[in-house]
């Protein structure tokens, strides 16, 4: 303890003596240097090293962050560039698709026009076919009619040959009577009175069918001229029977009364002042007569006594 106190005392004394030996400026300079030495002696080396390490770590972290940011920017830029390329490629594809679409639209419009032309041509062909079918039907009807006339003429050749000895040309000899009927449509139809006058001019009169034999013969003769396409009202033949003097009392031209008639069902009915009788070609020979107005025009049937 004494040695420690002694040292302290000596140090303090020396210090005090030293201070007294220096001037004020020197004392100040010395004091500052002493402070610096005291300050340097107070800072520890471990604290400086830790501070340096922390700074180094911070810089390293910052460098890593900057590197990551740089890499991210590079990747982003790369993706952005790829996106731009992709957009460019898509634009090119869209342009190609638009061109294909425009071509398809043009082809479709041309196809529509072609289809319209085809439909128009098809409609014209259809109309032409209908026209040709009508012509063919007309030709068939004319052919059938001519065939019927030929058949009728052939069937009456023997009667015409016999009639040449007993009847006028164009008349037919059947059951010992000369008959005339205009089988051709070229001959103009006549009213009942006009038809009778024609027969009288030839030396005969309208037919008087007063027996079943005559009726069957006449019905067979007229049956060769049945025309399915002709209206029934146009296919009749006037005969010499009427009820002009008394309604419902039918008489022949020689004033003899009708004994047996061959009326169509529901006839005679006297609708519209029907006072004259016409015979119609029918399959059933017992249903061939009809009362009709005397002023309509029909074909007719004449008869004459053979020569």
TrEMBL record:
Stored SUPFAM superfamilies: C-type lectin-like
Domain of life where this protein originates: Eukaryota
InterPro entries tied to this protein: C-type_lectin-like, C-type_lectin-like/link_sf, C-type_lectin/snaclec_domain, C-type_lectin_CS, CD209-like_CTLD, CTDL_fold
Domain C-type lectin residue range list: 174-303
Pfam families, sorted: Lectin_C
Source organism of this protein record: Cottoperca gobio
Transmembrane segments: 54-77
GO molecular function, one term: carbohydrate binding
Keywords: Disulfide bond, Lectin, Membrane, Transmembrane, Transmembrane helix
Gene name in the database record: LOC115027853
Protein name per Swiss-Prot or TrEMBL: CD209 antigen-like
